[in-house]
Amino acid sequence: MARLADYFVVIGYDLDKRVEGEGQGRILQRFPEKDWEDSPFPQGVELFCQPSGWQLVPDQQPPSFFVAVLTDINSDRHYCACFTFWEGLDNPQKAEASEVDEADELSVVQTSKIFAPKSLVLVSQLDYTEVFRNCLGLIYTVHVDGLSVPLETVIGHLLTCVIPIAGGSQPGQEEREESLRTITLGAGDRQVIQTPISDSLPVSGSSVAQLFRQLGIVNVLYLFCAALTEHKILFLSSSYQRLTDACRALLAIMFPLKYSFTYIPILPGKLLEVLSTPTPFIIGVNSFFRSETQELLDVIIADLDGGTVTIPECVHISLLPEPLLQQTQTALSMVLDPELEVADHAFPPQSIQPSALKIQDKEIRAVFLWLFARLFQGYRWCLHIIRIHPEPVIRFHKAAFLGQRALSEDDFLTKVLDGMAFAGFVSERGPPYRATDLFDDLVANQVERIRQEEACPHKVMNHVKELAEQLFKNENPYPAVAMHKVQRPSENSQNNAQNRAPFPMLDDVAVQLFIDHAAAKLKTAPPAVKAELKSMVPSGPPLGDVVDRNGNVMANSARRLEVVRNCITYIFENKMLEAKKLMPAVLRALKGRGARVCLTQELNQHVLQNRAVLDDQQFDYIVRMMNCTLQDCSHMDEHGIAAALLPLVTAFCRKLGAGITQFAYSCVQEHMVWTNMQFWEAMFYSDVQNHIRHLYLETEDREQHNNSEQHNGSGNRREISALELASEQSRLWPTLSKEMQMERVQKEESTVFSQAIHYANRMSYLLLPLDTSKNRLLRSSGIGDMESVSNSYVTNSIAGSMAESYDTESGFEDAESSDVANSVVRFINRFVDKVCNESGVTNEHLKALHAMIPDIVQMHIETLEAVHRESKRLPPIQKPKLLRPTLLPGEELVMDGMRVHLIPDGREEATGLMGGPPLLPAEGAIFLTTYRLIFKGTPTDPLVGEQTVTRSFPIASLTKEKRISVTLTMDQFVQEGLQLRSCTFQLMKIAFDEEVASDLAEVFRKHLHKLRYPQHVQGTFAFTVGQCGKMVVEHKAKDKNQSLKTLSKNLVKSAKRTIGRQYVSRKKYSPPTWENRSSFQSELDEDEISVSEEVDQSSLTLSSTIRSSDRQTMSNVVERACCRDYQRLGLGTLSNSLTRSKNEPFRISTANRMYTMCRSYPGLLIVPQSIPDATINRICRCYRQNRFPVVCWRNSRTKAVLLRSAGLHAKGVVGFFKSPNAPTAVPSQADSTNLEQEKYLQAIISSMPSYSENSGRNTLSGFTSTHMNTSDTSDKLRQPKIGALMKQVMGSKEDVPGTFSRGALGQRAKVISLSQPKVSGKARNPPRGKWGSIRGSGRLSAYNPDVGTRLAGKESPQPNGGPSDPLFLRQQKAYLYIIGDKAQLKGGKQDSFQHWEVVPIEVCDVRQVKNSFKKLMKACVPSSSTSDPSMSFLRCLEESEWMALLHRVLQVSVLVVELLNTGSSVMVSLEDGWDVTTQVVSLVQMLSDPYYRTFDGFRLLVEKEWLSFGHRFSHRGAQTLGSQSSGFTPIFLQFLDCVHQIHLQFPMEFEFSQYYLKFLAYHYVSNRFRTFLLDSDYERIELGVLYEEKGERKNPQVCKSVWDYIDRLNKKTPVFYNYMFSPEDEEVLRPYTFISNLKVWDFYTEETLSEGPSYDWELRGRQERTAEETAEKPDTSGPKSQRHIVWPCYDNLTKAVPDSITKLLQELQSLEAELGQTSDKWKDTWDKIKTTQRTETKLESKPSFSSSLLMSSNLSHQRRSQGVYLQESGVGSSINLALDCEASATSTPVAGRPSTSTLYSQFQSTESENRSFEGILFKKGALLKPWKPRWFVLDKTKHQLRYYESRQDKECKGVIELAEVESVTAGTPTMGAPKNIDEKAFFDLKTTKRVYNFCAQDSLNAQLWMDSIQSCLSDA
Q1: Among 155, 328, 770, 1747, which is most exposed with the fewest C-beta within 10 angstroms?
Q2: How far is residue 191's CA from residue 205's CA, in Å, rounded to a whole number?
Q3: Helix H segments across 553-592?
Q4: 1441-1474: per-residue pLDDT in tens?
Q5: C-alpha span between 1033 and 962 (Å, rounded)
Q6: pLDDT at 1125
């Protein structure tokens, strides 16, 4: 029985405490005055009566009613029913006024009425909204209508009403109950209270249906899931009663879970800060406060009036698992909208109305009950009962529950089970003996029905309707209630509210009398005991069957289980070979749950009396299987596999020696599950439950034996579950005597205690590592920090203090073994505390346990030490032998092989996933040498075991190294490992074997780092090769007493010694003094064709580091790539030259000879003839890094030149105020520098023939005439094309294909404006703000952004604001285009006659290239495989934007080529002039000039543009410690990739093959050669690298230059040669540049695991030799197959499947060798074949296209016709010419000459047809030089006369182009001529530039020479 109402309160407006319009309420009267003991009076009721605040209102308002809910400190809810009405007051302000002016009293009274609220509040612990509404309404009616009943009587009756809490009608009690339920307050009223039958089911009225109507199905489901997963929920509505109803509804659908967080259906405005509480809540707030709820970030807001639910971004609501969610939604829509189903029917039923609201409400709740029954079915099978007496203690096994449902990954269920509500559910519904309700019945007895019906919605609906009926009956047990009689206030009383008397003060004595009287009556009355019906709670069917019947078991599992069983049988029968064969299949099968369960069951059968002793190999296999099983289990162990293995790991063991046994647990410790506190708790509780069950089963058995009648029936009883036992015991408990009760409590307690000791032992077994010194445990699992996260709220008692002291300690890197023990002790203590507190162990016992634990651990450590010692003595399991790598000459080991495993990365080819054998993972060793990092080993898969796997990369190419931890499939341990990434597109993931000590791995990392980033470039392999002392680290045995620290110290010392040696031995060279220099000069062999005395004077001071004695240095300087190329291009004049005409436009300047002007430029530079060095000195300051414009190439046809420079300086603000185009650095010097700049550019333009032709005429008319003269059609045709190119390159907003970067450069500014009319020159707006002109001159000096327009042939208004009439300025193309950086846009001056123009483009900066390259590496060599489609190769490739960068560079280059080809010069002036500039300039030359597509030419190009012009190889390659931070930026690789793209499109134009490019790409980062070290010629000279003598080499095998190496290799093998090479004369290449035309370079993706990278050829030779040696041994294994299988990522394809020509050449060589002939070099053979081919082609008088294999001109024709530009001339004829010429060249071959690698030979090796005539001639040097004998070669093919120092010399000393020879005449001897020689032996050769004097050995020889030269001239 319970009181209907606890308190009645009258609350009024407090007139005294008004603060600025903020009123307050105060309690006027309260009954009873004293608090009830069982329910104290709730505080703050006055706030809740007026949640929006107490306010006076001018108008009378109707009475209102709502129920607020308050929760007290014991979390009991109090329902406060508030009935509010408004009473008139005299307005205080008006009242004061009225005293002054009596006359207006009447009117004042009228207006002075204002209304104050007054509330009648009823506080109750029961929730009967309607009853409360009626009672308070009655009191109000009595007051208003002035009924005769005193208010005191009504209130007295109300407070003394007592009603039953619950329980429906039972036949015998009905009348009494009826009278109890009917209440009257003594005012002629009568009500019946509907008490629910079962008070555990919530009462909802129609609130649930109302909530669904307001918000809709999906929204309510969101709120439902949010409430269950503990989110914050806020309801908004303008109605208070609706807020209460919505909150009540949400709680009702959560049944059987109870909400246990903050619950405030109506929150007063003054308490709004409660909303920022961190805990979950369900709160209702009036919409009036909506604005204040806006900034709540993590609150879900449901607006009841608007029907919306707003979920903030940061909140993620986990929804119900499918298919439950879908089924619930379907069921709900069928309840709420039954018409939906028949909406499409042709003949819909007459009317399908949804049920009445009250019924609908119950139907919805039934759907949620049904949902929970499905969610929680079988939950009772996961309850562990750990104590029965004195009170049941029950724990829930969450992991098992999730595992049985296969929902361990499900977010929603996991959160629900972890939540407070579920914890409450377990403690309330866990006990096995209690009153049951509807849910218990549903979840236990109707599971079967639910499962059968779940697929059929109609059956579900029937079930729901049945449940709804029960719920409705529960709430409304008395259907026919006709005795309701409650008065309402009469109409007129409501109307004349104006003059109503206020609510009277009540007589508290009268009310109190009523209360006392009732209390006395209760005491005398007999207690009405309602018998609680307790019973055993049914458990329902166990869940295991459920899942299996759903078919979630693995397919073909029977076969797998068979394999597992067989393997175990073989192991125990000692059939080891059979077991070994099955092992891989077993390990695969163990991924399935069924197989794992099977394994534990099978192993169990082999355990006798808790022990099974095995031999070593059996033990090894069993442990491997256990590890594999555990490895695939999650740390939660949801399938109980680890639990089943736990007793087995302490059973299986092997004998190690006398009295020493090793158990399996010492080998399976490396799994997370052992460090998971929840796992241990669950295990402990399930064991305790079993023991307690046995305890009671025994007592029962004993009793049964005593009762002999029952004896016969006891045999076939089914197993009684622990819960059933507990229920039975709980039923009997009250009947037992005190002693019996005590005995049982003690027995249970000692059971728990003994189990705790047992578990302390078990935990120490699995947590203490075998080698306790290794402290592996701490590092991997962090046991120390692992807090327990389970559903218990018990604090730690004793262990708490210990845990704190532990947590304050610092990390445990250097922990000693005691630390391992301490942390294990702490972990076990924490566990013991938790479980003992929860299962009620006494404190004495707990203390005893704490005392025992350290001893247990210590004891175990001691036994482990013995085991560890013995286990090391075991013969090790056979590990594969470590294979030694072959090393290069000069390469030495730094660390000997350490055993490691090579783990597969994201490339799937090697793992066997894409077909082919699983080559990885492999086991072997890693070797660190001075040059490379090498892994060599064999695959771990036994079927592939005989292959070797090699992966290596140069240390210099390492870009990233990080530590990883790896779990190996076969092994027990989580290994530490390294992931090493190299920019040669290689990735090594290695895991160190357990035999490698961790500090050794650390030493390895340090060495690696030291070798990767030496202090100085001289520490790189290219310099140290062959010098390094021995520094191999020996680590054969892992011996305890060998101190690794000393070892690594010695190592470091020896390393310092060896590296130091190089520095000491190399002295700094002192600069030669002036005297030395003059003597130096006289010794020079100066016979250069184009170098005059001026050079001598200047070049002597080339660098302070040149040794004065070095006679060759000077000629070396001039022989540098630059000079040789300048001579070839005819740019090589010197200003004072006597033998050349003065009108040569360019000269070689020596202004930079000391590298004072620009450190990063070469010593000799080409500048305009007219510009003196002093001017250059000034100009260079305007450019970044002083890299001023110099000529680097000239188009032989149009004579246009290509210049390169850096961008102009922009010095902050100064740069900003600079005149728009004046390239000046400081405004003060603006004029002079500007003029000099202009003069410089003008001088370049004047050098062009096209300009000088024009400049003869009057300029204007000249321009006009060119404009008018339209005959020059070829130019006209080309212009739009260039314009289009230009527009692509400069890019406009619409230009998508050209977009260069979305990232760093941001939106591209629109630079080319096609339509915008230009205003005046001053008001021009290029992208950066407004540019004024600092220059005062009146000439137009504005940057003209109109270039593209004009080039595209469009017209546009004149830029200077003048009339747009004279368009003659427009059409003329500029003489010089300056390709500048759009971001800078400070280009050269735009002069009014438009001699030059700036083309602004966007350049990729270095950061972009760097980031793009990182992404490219990750795309091509991913570190781990992923199935995520957004991480696929092509997607990653696209995101890297590498292709877009290539497209950009190629696009600019093609534009420049076009411009040069149309006769305009181009100056590339980007960034610092050494990255993008170099790329563009090199590509332009290669596209324009066929010479650069030969071996020599390409070498020359790289030496000239990349090395001499100072591309910063060391800096960009991060080759030293200093440049480490800048990271690796592959500018040169990008260039090589561009060349590769062009090569793909024009395969017949290149003499070298793709492999040549890959070779360079590999070695430019490998540091094997010195070629690509250092940042400029200046640095190379300073180190003495530039002019190394040929004889200087100490070690003949060590090549210092990559070019020499390639030359040598090329003589031996055709690997670099392109057989399709058949160039066309003067062919200019124009490749397609769009991304769709570019291909990914296979250099990035290919790898050869059989031998490692194929770019170090010495290794190949050696490997083949060793292979042959092994093959020579007699092989008795039987017939060998000729077939060889080629695997794509393993074999070297070019070697395994060579192309036909290489194959034929190889066969030819081997045949010649067999015949004993000396075999020709491959090149000679190839050339002979080519020549005969050509001759044959000539002889067949067919058209020029020959169908022959080698010289297939068809191919060339086809390729060119596919090209975008087709040459105008007939293609055939040009090929004919080439063939004729080469065929005739064979007419006078001089056979048998040793080959000399000449500068211009088309091929590297002997090419007899290229030497028409050769011999010794004396040649007179330049002025005042002696005659010297030289070896001359007349070359008809190249049309030139070359000469060398001697016949054997490889380096050409000079060339006379026969095209320039005017005549050959007999000469006369001059001064200093050789003596004793016939006069007729002299002859002269006159060229356009000078006269050469020659002298032959005799007159006959001279005549021969003259004739040969003459015939060459006439042939031409």
Answers
A1: 1747
A2: 17
A3: 557-572, 576-589
A4: 999 999 999 999 999 999 999 889 999 998 888 8
A5: 22
A6: 82
pLDDT in tens, 1020-1030: 888 888 664 44
Label residue 676 by pLDDT band (50, 70, 90): confident
- Examine the pLDDT at 1835 and tell me if it is beyond 70: yes
Q: Decide if pLDDT at 1597 tops 70.
A: no
Name the DSSP letter for residue 611: B
pTM higher than 0.70 for the full model? Answer: no
Burial of 1707 (0-12, 13-18, 19+ CB in 10 A): exposed
Q: How many residues would you count in the chain?
A: 1916
> Which long-range contacts does 1660-1669 make (Cβ < 8 Å, 24+ apart)?
1662/886, 1663/886, 1666/886
Structure tokens at 1328: 């950066």
**Residue 1163 carries which side chain, given as an amino acid letter?**
G
Q: Could you please report the per-residue DSSP string of 17-57?
A: EEETTEEEEEEEEEESSSPPSSSPPPTTHHHHHSTT-B--B
Spatial separation of the C-alpha atoms in residues 645 and 668, rounded to whole Å: 10
- The pLDDT, as a whole number, for residue 474 is 81
Among candidate residues 1538, 1573, 1540, the one with its CA nearest the CA of residue 1556: 1540
> Is 80 exceeded by the pLDDT of residue 1287?
no
What's the rounded Cα separation, in Å, for the pair 208 and 211? 5
Q: What pLDDT, in 10s, does the model give residues 838-877?
A: 888 888 888 888 888 898 888 888 888 888 887 777 765 6
* 883, 936 Cβ separation under 8 angstroms: yes
| Exposure string over 229-263, b if 16+ CB within 10 A, otherwise e | bbbbbbbbbebbbbbbbbbbbbbbbbbbbebebbb
**Backbone angles phi and psi of 754, in degrees to 5:** -65, -35
Spatial neighbors of 180 by CB under 8 A, at least 6 apart, are 1, 162, 163, 164
Q: How far is CA 115 from CA 111, 184, 499, 643, 1644, in A?
A: 12, 32, 12, 73, 86
1058 compared with 65, residue with greater pLDDT:
65
Is 90 exceeded by the pLDDT of residue 339? Answer: no
**Which comes out higher in pLDDT, residue 134 or 611?**
134
Residue 1907: count of CB within 10 angstroms of its CB: 12
In tens, the pLDDT along 1057-1081 reads 444 444 433 334 444 434 343 333 3
CA distance 849 to 1073: 91
Average pLDDT, the chain: 74
Q: Provide φ and ψ at 1589, rounded to 5°.
A: -75, 150
- Phi–psi pair at 1172, nearest 5 degrees: -75, 160
Here the tokens at position 1342 are 């504005």
| DSSP string across 1711-1732 | HHHHHTPPPPPHHHHHHHHHHH
Tell me the one-letter amino acid at 1079: S
The Cα 1180–Cα 1233 span in angstroms is: 10
DSSP 1559-1602: HHHHHHHH-SSSTT-SSSHHHHHHTT-TT--GGG-SSTT--SSH
DSSP output for 497-537: GGGPPPPPPP-HHHHHHHHHHHHHHHHHSPP-PPPP--EEP
Residue 1333 sits at the vertex; the CA angle it makes with 1330 and 1335, to the nearest 5 degrees, is 165
Of 1393, 1378, 1389, the residue nearest 1456 (C-alpha)? 1378
Task: Identify whether the C-beta of residue 632 lies closer than 8 Å to the C-beta of residue 591.
Answer: yes
Question: CA-to-CA distance for 1556 and 1559, rounded, in angstroms?
Answer: 5
Peptide bond before residue 32 is cis, with ω within 30 degrees of 0: yes
The mean pLDDT value for 130-135 works out to 87
Q: How much of the chain, in percent, has pLDDT values that exceed 70?
A: 72
Decide: 79 and 67 in contact? Cβ < 8 Å: yes
Phi, psi of 1779 (to 5 degrees): -70, -45
Do residues 868 and 771 touch, judged by C-beta distance below 8 A?
yes
With vertex at residue 451, the alpha carbon angle to CA 447 and CA 453, rounded to the nearest 5 degrees, is 120
